[in-house]
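Support reply, case 0932

Customer input (verbatim):
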Amino acid sequence: MLKWFGFYIGYFFILLLSWLPFAVLYLISDALAFILYYLIPYRKALVMKNLANAFPEKTTHERKQIAWRFYRHFSDVLVETIKLVSISSDGLSKRIEFIGFEVMEDLYKKDKSVAAVLGHYGNWEWTCILPLRLKHHPLTIYKPLRNQYFNRFMIGLRSKFGIEPVPMKQIYKTLVQYKNKNIITATGFIADQRPVRDTIQHWTTFLNQQTGVFTGIEKIAGRMDMAVVYFRMDKINRGRYRIEPVLLFENVSGIEPTAITETHLRYLESIIRAKPEYWLWSHRRWKHPKPTTHE
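Our regenerated output:
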C-alpha cells in the first residue's frame, strides 16, 4: 500500500513537471547538473574513475571538463525523459532529425527482420519514437524492475508510440512466433549493458578496459537470420537529436564467432571517443573484472 501511494504521489509530480515547456525544464536541468556535480555528487568518483581508465592520455583537467559536460547532458536526459510523459508524437518528431532510413525500407522490402543495436548514448529513451518511422513491427527487450509500479510506468513510457516491450527471457520465443506468422520485426538491443558475472561468455577491450559483454545479439541474429543495424543517435544541440540507422550486417550466415559483437562494440566505441560526454559514464559498466584464470 505504501509503495502504491508513494509511486502515485511521485507520478503526479512527474506529470506536472512534464507539462512545463522545454525552456523551463532546461533551467531545472542546469540546476540539477550543478547539484549532482558540485553539491551532492552523484557517482562522481565512479565517473572520474571510468574516464581515467578510458582516456589515460588526457589530462585531469580535460577529464574534468568531460565529466562536467556529461553531468549537464545527463540532467538533460532526465528532464527529457520526464517530458515523454506528456509530449505528443508530433512534438517529439519535430525534435529529431531522421536520416538514412532507406536502409530500413530496403531491408523491409527484402523481408528481413532486424536486430536494432543501440547504446546508452544521446537520449536512448527518445528512440521510443522509432515505430513512427519503421514498417517493421517494433520490439524492445527489457529486464523487469523490482518495483512493479515503476516497472509498469517505464513500460508505458517506452511503448507509448507503438514499441512492444518483451521481457529478456521471452524474446527468442516471441521472435520465433512472429517469424512463423511471417511478421517482419525490428528488435531493439542495448549493446553496452553489464552482464551478470556468471553469464559472461566473451571478454573484449572496450574503452581501454577488459570488458565482459553480452553475445545475445549475435546469437539471436544468427538463429533468426536477422540483419544487424546500429541506430546511431547524435545530439545536435539541446533537445535536438539525429537518428541514423547504419547497416553493419545484412546477412550473418557464415560470420565468424564474436564478429558481430566486436563490430557493434567498435562502432559504439568510435562514437563515444568522438563525443564522450554523451555516453552514460555513471553506469557501473566495469563492476566485474576479468577473472585471472580466464582463458
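We compared this against your earlier run and they match. Two observations from our side: The first strand starts at residue 96 and ends at 98. The two ends are 50 Å apart (CA to CA). Please reopen the case if you see a mismatch on your end.
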